[in-house]
Amino acid sequence: QAQLVESGGGSVQAGGSLTLSCTGSGYTSGFMAWFRQAPGKEREGVAGISTYGWPIVYASSVKGRFTISRDNAKKTLYLQMNSLKPEDTAVYYCVSDRAGGRWDVWGHYRYWGQGTQVTVSS
Fold first, then answer.
1. Mean pLDDT, residues 81-87 taken together
2. Longest Cα pair distance anywhere in the chain, in angstroms?
3. Does residue 40 surpass a pLDDT of 90?
């Protein structure tokens, strides 16, 4: 059984930056990703990264602004978010251990965290 704990969320003005972290305990491996869910919207995949750091995928809405990375020795996943926009406001979740299929489908992952709130004001 694995547990994932996100941290690093907060409030920031538009154009600012935040770095999210997700630390795993127990067995966490394989493809990992960040999802987000804004109020009244469906959960969406933001970025994903394979076990050894490549390949990496991004949603078109964040490409060029967000960077996903991981440190397997520390069992930690990161999401560096730059040039934040109000539409980035959401609860951000990390997920791990993809069973297969599309990376941006929540149901394809075995483990997920409780989420961390990111609020971007204009």
1. 98
2. 40
3. yes
